Amino acid sequence: MTYVVTDNCIMCKYTDCVEVCPVDCFYEGENTLVIHPDECIDCGVCEPECPADAIRPDTEPDMENWVEFNRKYSEQWPVITRKKDPLPTATEMDGVAGKLEKYFSPNPGEGD
Length: 112
Fold this sequence. Notes:
Blueprint: E1 3-5, H1 16-20, E2 26-28, E3 33-35, E4 55-57, H2 64-74, H3 90-93, H4 99-103
Antiparallel strand pairs: 1-4, 2-3
């Protein structure tokens, strides 16, 4: 099992989760985060820390595409280990449907 970041992180990018991760498996994109599924140790401490409820275990239904999404971008983006301010759009974008199709940016973030 691994944990993955889903589309509710897009345009929010809360980073509460990265501070509690014991193995530094979060990677930063321009407007979202991902978890490297091969580095995640399945401890689950990140899941309750996410204010947007965007982190899910891969054992939930329909998570296969999110595992591959997280794998792809974690191999392209820089690691992030420290908490940063969320995006200015975080509050208004939390829970908005269709964020992957409408707002996702494949560009890397700054990392640490």
